[in-house]
Amino acid sequence: MVTATYKHYSGQLETYFDRTARDAWVQLTSEAPVSKIRATVRAGRERMRSTLLDWLPVDLSGRRVLDAGCGTGAAAIELAKRGAKVIAVDVSASLIEIARERTPVGLQIDWRRGDMLDFALGSFDHILAMDSLIHYPTDDIVAAIADLGERATRSMLFTVAPRTPALTLMHNVGKLFPRSDRAPAIQPVPVKSLHRQIAESRALNGWHRGREETVSGGFYTSHALELVWQ
User: Residue 177 — pLDDT band, cuts 50, 70, 90?
Assistant: First the structure.
């Protein structure tokens, strides 16, 4: 069930990407020159995207896949190249616009601006949510995964920001900047506690933990989890 805090953080993300960060994300998610700090984020995101895509079949023909929080569309494009029928959704109209512009000619992807938890999106074989839950606390992550799990039939792949000393320090330092200069804060979560809450969630009965992997380098740290239906 969508919570008030989920709506609050989702609204912050929409405002940030549509009003503040569009140009920065055009640059970050392209081959344009970036600072050394952003280069580590770009490299980390590329490694994470490759990891998640490796956990999905090479041939996705006939399967429906949701890219939940698709950003500028790199993962959705790769999924479509594998033959998947892809619905790619993001809260940011600006990022969806960029994704549409980058879609190769002849590739069919259903780009949508909206909430990734909208049940009107339909049901899917696989759901991928890369770095789209890292701004939410543990309770909201579990609730979101439970909502998505009602519409997935094979697997769900998602990432969280793992609570590490370095990531917690960066999170606390970020609070010192003026609000107008801040990106929406990443919420470091204790992975063991996340595991426990997922296992205890009645709404996730039938879903079991699969593979896990942490990608960390420079200013990027993210932990990937796979849930599979059995």
Answer: very low
| DSSP element (H, E) containing 173 | helix 165-174
In words, the CATH class of domain 4-229 is alpha beta
Q: List phi, psi (to 5°) of 137.
A: -70, 170
Question: Cα-flanking dihedrals φ and ψ of residue 113, to 5°?
Answer: -90, 125
**pLDDT 10s digits, 36-74:** 999 999 999 999 999 999 999 999 999 999 999 999 999
- Percent of the chain whose pLDDT exceeds 90: 78
Identify whether the C-beta of residue 204 lies closer than 8 Å to the C-beta of residue 227.
yes
- Nearest partner of 187 among 136, 125, 133, judged by Cα: 136
pTM of the model: 0.92
Return the domain boundaries, the chain: 4-229
Check residue 96 and give left, alpha or beta (phi > 0: left; psi -120 to 50: alpha).
alpha
Angle among Cα 226, 86, 227 to the nearest 5 degrees reads: 10
